[in-house]
Each structure stands twice: as structure tokens, then as C-alpha cells.
Design brief:
The chain is of the alpha/beta class and about 230 residues long. The chain has helices at about 15-30, 40-50, 65-75, 90-95, 110-130, 160-170, 180-190, 195-210, and strands at about 10, 30-35, 55, 80-85, 100-105, 135-140, 140-145, 150-155, 155-160, 180, 215-220, 225. The protein has 2 domains: about 10-130, Rossmann fold (3-Layer(aba) Sandwich), CATH 3.40.50; about 135-225, Arc Repressor Mutant, subunit A, CATH 1.10.10.10. The structure holds calcium ion.
């Protein structure tokens, strides 16, 4: 069965009205929803209920959403969609840096929230489907095994987050070819739109730090390309 159908979602938001509105809407779309209203509550709900996806507000009582993200990603990587204050660049970058897959700025439209949740869950489904095929890609000193979702650089294993892995796989599908950030965002995050550029940039930065600074080439004003033999 696909993850998307009847997925369990943890909604973490300290404003009761927003938390309940999001919860009601997601339940209306057939998702199972569990709720938390502060940092410690989010971590314990995560452990107890094993959700498939987490919607995570940044400013929370106890400890903040970034700390929640660090702790849950260390326990078991799942898609995390951060809910951030409008245009708070620092919040967005910190969130992406601690393992959030993407972000949505407040105030958001419910329709967009539901669509983004669906896109993230479909990505998990696609990854599961890919894992059933056995495909290994060798590009210079880089080796990617799509089935086991493992990556090696110069025969040392590199540990990537699920999103970093999907991004690398997408770039490796056409080595040397420049892909725009919009295309990468649409392909990897399953969601069209220019809002994804910071998300893509942040994940490329993480990929470079883990696989080598020259691995992914920036083509200014255009996008990114994987170097076939970095
Ligand atoms: Ca809040």
C-alpha cells in the first residue's frame, strides 16, 4: 500500500485555532492526524505514534521547531514541512539546515498546505518504488545504489538524508546537464513554483559538504549540474 493513502501526520503548532483547523482539514482528506502543541510534546508524540510526515511550527513553547526537527531526524528520518513566519530568511535557512524537507510561510492557504503534504508523501512512495528496482550508478568516484539508497564517494560511504539522496539521484540521471532550480524542485519535491529556490540551494549546499565541494557545479542564473567526474 502506498504511504499517501491514509498516512499518519503529526501536526505541531502551539496556536490552538491553527492546529485544529489544519488537523480538521487533513482529516477531511483521509489522513490520520495526531497533534502536539509544544516541543517536548512533539518529540514524545513522534516516538509514540510513528507518523509518516511532520508539519512543524518553528516558534513553540518548551523548545523550538528546529530542536524538534534535529531530535526526530536523528531518531528516524521522515519528511518534515516547516511552518515559518513570513519571509524570515534566518528561520528558513536554519530549518532546512537541521533536516526539514521544505517550508511553508505563514499565513498559508489550506489548499496549498494539503497539496504540499500530498507532494511530499508521493515522494516517499516514489522512493519506495525505486527501491524495488536494482540500479547502481557509477560516476567517477561516486557510486549510487538506488535500491538500498546508499552512496559512496571514493569507496567511503556517505550518509545522506532522504531528500539529499533524491536530489543527487535526480542530478545523476543526467550528468553534466544543467538543471534549473525550478525543474529540480518540481522533480524532487513534486511541487512546481519559484518558492523552492532556497530549499534547493540549501540541499545542494548539504550535498556538496557531504560528497565534495566540486561535485555539483553552479551555473549562475541557470541552475545546477552534477560533474560527471568530480
Ligand atoms: Ca508558534
Amino acid at each position: 500500500m502506498s504511504v499517501s493513502a491514509g498516512a499518519r501526520i503529526l501536526v505541531v503548532e502551539d496556536e490552538p485555532v491553527i492546529n485544529q483547523a489544519v488537523t480538521d482539514r487533513l482529516r477531511g482528506h483521509g489522513y490520520e492526524v495526531v497533534q502536539a502543541w509544544d516541543g517536548p510534546g512533539a518529540v514524545s508524540q513522534f516516538t509514540e505514534t510513528a507518523p509518516d510526515l511532520v508539519l512543524l511550527d518553528v516558534m513553540l513553547p518548551g523548545f523550538d521547531g528546529h530542536e524538534v526537527c534535529r531530535r526526530i531526524q536523528a531518531a528516524r528520518p521522515v519528511p518534515v514541512l516547516m511552518l515559518t513566519a513570513r519571509d524570515d530568511e534566518a528561520d528558513i535557512l536554519v530549518g532546512l539546515g537541521v533536516g526539514a524537507d521544505d517550508y511553508l510561510t505563514k499565513p498559508f492557504r489550506m489548499r496549498e498546505l494539503v497539496a504540499r503534504v500530498g507532494a511530499l508523501l508521493r515522494r516517499v512512495d516514489r522512493a519506495a518504488e525505486l527501491a524495488t528496482r536494482s540500479t547502481t550508478t557509477d560516476l567517477g568516484d561516486l557510486r549510487i545504489d538506488a535500491a538500498s539508497r546508499r552512496v559512496w564517494v571514493a569507496e567511503s560511504e556517505v550518509h545522506l538524508t532522504p531528500t539529499e539522496f533524491d536530489l543527487l539521484l535526480c542530478l545523476a540521471a543526467s550528468p553534466g546537464v544543467v538543471l534549473t532550480r525550478e525543474n529540480l524542485y518540481a522533480e524532487v519535491w513534486g511541487w512546481p513554483g519559484a518558492s523552492g529556490t532556497r530549499t534547493v540551494d540549501s540541499h545542494v549546499k548539504a550535498l556538496r559538504s557531504k560528497t565534495g565541494a566540486d561535485r555539483v557545479r553552479t551555473v549562475h542564473g541557470v541552475g545546477y549540474a552534477l560533474e560527471p567526474s568530480a
